[in-house]
Write a structure and sequence with these properties.
This protein is mostly helical and 224 residues long. It folds into two domains: 68 residues, no CATH class; 142 residues, no CATH class. The chain has ten helices and no strands.
Length: 224
Amino acid sequence: MIGIIYAFIITFIAYMLAKPCNRKIPQVPVIVFGMFFIMGLLFIFGLPYEEYMENANPIFNNLLGYVTVALAIPLAAMRYDDLPLKGILGILVFASLSAVALPMGLAYLLHMASPDIMAFATRAVTTPIAINIATLLQAPISLVILIVILSGVIGAAFSPFILRNINDERASGLALGLAAHAIGTAQAWQRGSVAGRYAAFGMAVNAVFTAIWLPTFILFLQST
């Protein structure tokens, strides 16, 4: 119990230190600063990383589930009467299929093992759903988490340059939610409430759609 409290305090301190750094350099997501602060605090206190993860995982894995459910709050505030459903549906389907096919294809070309290839299939969904999909596909959980976090960090970090000529906050928010899931959604909220809501919408719908078709399709292929 004491170890869990220490892990929570270290994570909280790292987050509080990362927030002002992110305000000064908004191109770098909070989670990136937080990771470096956590590594620094673990080094200062002489705590092994394995012990920190063992104590922190039970807390934050559960909190990730609550955060995912809390996405319903910004979604409820959206107006759907002017939403181009056909266009949005086409974008979501293309984003989900390409986000699975391209990483898996690259992993296959690199001659990676089958479980590792399955891990890359979860690249574009948020962590709690990626973990559940990885469990069904028997992919390594640690690699799945690393892939999801890295894709979110890279997407959010480069978004100011990629989206600099996009003036429609709905489009930029949707792109961030689809490409960089939770971290991208957090970045979208920094652009504005409209971008944040559309990012949450894109991330949530893409995660649900991917969680339905991907395991079904992969398990069907494995059974034939």
